[in-house]
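Not sure how to ask, but would you mind making up any protein sequence you like and the tokens describing how it folds?
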Amino acid sequence: MRAALIPAYNEESRIAPVILKARRHVDLVIVCDDGSTDMTPEVARDLGAVVVRHGRNLGYGAALRTLFLEALKRDVDVAVTLDADGQHDPDFIPVLVEPVERGEADLVIGSRFVRGGGAPGMSRLRRLALAFLNLVGRRAVGLDVRDTQSGMRAYSRRALEVAADAMERGMGVSYGILREAAKAGLRVKEVPIKVSYGEARPSRNPVLHFSELVAALLRIVLEERPLLYLGIPGLLLVMVGLAFGWWALDLYLSTRYFSVPMALVSVGSSIAGFLLVITSFQLYVLAKLRAELRRLRRRID
């Protein structure tokens, strides 16, 4: 069974065409109303969609996870996620689901940046920001993906199970899902789609959106290798602190002059270094515990 999964927040004026067009290509449309204060859930329900609701706005990642779990509960075989604001054309759904249904891929990404894809109306600033996020993102998640931020993706049932483990509640879930897919060894493929930005207004503040994605990247990098990115710099800071401390002590013993700046550098570097080292070990242990909990949960499921 095919399903379209649509996270929505205050999209009463734009969601109707998305649902109607999606119904041409799927057996079931599921909408997650993420705490909307308008008529979004009523419009979706009247158009034949299954609606699951959050009592308050929890974020894009939380809405996707709710949709994944609902699709699994309803025994969906292949699901496609798309935005409620009309930027994603539901007529691309057959293109995305075909590799999954033919057994060629577990996760198919609708890409704006492969041959045949495009993004009419995308601003130059947005294009530059996405180029940066894609470059850093594919290195962080360990997948050679041209469009790490595409919200139009097709999932096999196995991919739905893996994606539901992504911990990000906000926009960083795009990276989180790719990271989980890489860890699980899922087969990932990109197909070209066109995303229209011509008349669409941003549903989120672009600066906050960009900041959230950068923060998500930092979390992924630090969680993956905390000893490398926090532990080693911490040890270097401790060594700097000890060196300045020794230097200040030697200066005092030989000249009876106490250098306040050198003492401050010594104390500050040592404290910062110890904090980084301790944090790196905490993150390392937490990452191991989380991985073990996921393995146990998958065995239980």
Remarks:
- The first helix runs from residue 15 to 22.
